[in-house]
Design a protein that fits this description.
Length: 122
């Protein structure tokens, strides 16, 4: 018989994580372990190492593949990938990543958006 009840532990952990103390703990931990956290995320989600990410970043001269600027939020550039194949296309700032995501990664929708802007003097 296990020493602790897993359901009680889960509930306790959820309450702590939602508390101000829990949020502060997570924020502090992340600041102290940002590199470790990012590295783990890259490996789990995209199957690339932090060295692979840094290589992509260097090939893009440290800027977004679309707008050619650094991420204004100060965060890491997002890994842009094809949702069907999983193939990594490049690194994007938050705004560009959201923009192509809002257009469902669709070339035809993007062309429609361009045409709309051009026809309205944008």
């Amino acid at each position: 018989m296990p020493y602790r009840d897993n359901e009680k532990n889960k509930a306790c952990k959820q309450r702590f994580n939602q508390s101000e103390a829990g949020k502060e703990y997570k924020r502090k931990w992340y600041l102290e372990n940002a590199y470790k956290s990012k590295s783990s995320h890259l490996l789990k989600k995209y199957k690339i190492t932090m060295n692979d990410y840094i290589g992509l970043l260097e090939r893009q001269n440290g800027v977004c593949a679309i707008c050619k600027e650094t991420c204004k939020s100060g965060r890491y550039l997002a890994v842009d990938h094809c949702h069907e194949t999983g193939k990594i296309r490049g690194l994007l700032c938050l705004e560009c990543n959201r923009g192509i995501g809002a257009l469902k990664d669709s070339v035809s929708l993007l062309e429609c958006a361009i045409n709309y802007l051009v026809s309205h003097g944008g």
